[in-house]
Predict the 3D structure of the following.
Amino acid sequence: MGVLQAHQQNTGQVWSVLLERIAFHGFVFTMLFPIKINIPFLGLLFVCIVINKRFGHIWQALRSNTVFIAILLYYTTLVLSLLYSEDVITGVKNLETKLAMLFLPFLLSGIPEIEKEKRLIMINFILGVVAVSVYSIISTIIVYRIDFSDWSYFSWVLPETINLNSSQYSIYIVCALFFLITGQIEKGLLNIIAALILGFYLVGFLAFMSSRLALILFVLMTLTYFLVTLLKTKNRNKRIVLFLFSGVIILMTVCSILFIPYLNDRMLQLVNGLGQDPRSFIFRAGFEILKDNFYLGVGIGDIQNLLNEQYHRLSFQEGIHSNFNAHNDWLTSILGAGLPGIISLIFVYYSYFRSALSTKNILAFAFPVFFLLASQTEAILNRHKGVLLFMFLISVTCINPIFKKENNA
């Protein structure tokens, strides 16, 4: 009888662990999908944590983790700013958007031996982004049709199919490309050919999104990765592969800028100055609000209403109609929670960089650099998908790390 009970207990544990893995990898694959698709996987992951009694493990992982403490402090400053917000309902909705800052580290820190599945995690993420991009193209053709005479169509209409703007969409594509390049660079010929095909597709899709910052950061950071790896490696075949990838990326980027009219126009606008760029009006509006609200901000619920008032004052019609947010995480933080908000965000990035550096892994360090630069022109933490990606990468880099010290042979 005791043997039978032990067998049943072991069988139950195997099934619960299997469900836990299905829930985790299902979430990774569907991260860019609409929220109603990936939430069930997170719910299943929580159930598995309860069944497997992982709360002690989670407590040990989080209680002294400086990155999670910094995130908790940042979220707390936003909650406190709600106390002096006039629009409490909007403030609560904004806090709800950022809830992944709390629950994602909690859920992901409870999964044991996650580092053994690094390659599978990276592949799932890449395939998920590719799947959503294919869905975007097909659904756009079916619902809207594609007007090939207007290339800006790709930048504006395609992201709408998943209720996401092109800049945030592009951030996911760049992260998928990082995973693709670093995860496949040392593998066999077949994997490298597959990586090149997927790389062509994703870089092309990124170019059609016409997010200048995402494209520029991808090229600069990828070439930096290749250069650093090239200087460290002694393997001749790996050097050849690195030169091949570098050449392909430079060629594709140049061709994209030259032959995609909308991207070409946006790059020329960047070269000629950003005086008429929407962000120049947005930042002027934000700084006007800061003049009288520098120390404590206006409260997390009132940011958008006050920005809209400034857009009216500046006669910025595009900002009024599109309800543009601050397009900068730092500006959003200081507008909402004042000095406590921006100081706590600095602490988040400081802790993130310090933890990523300790891994001595190039890819682990690339992500905080990428987010730091991207946050200058995008309010990444103002949307659910941005928070989800940011916290996922923090979790697998600093809380339950999958990246280890690299072997540079």
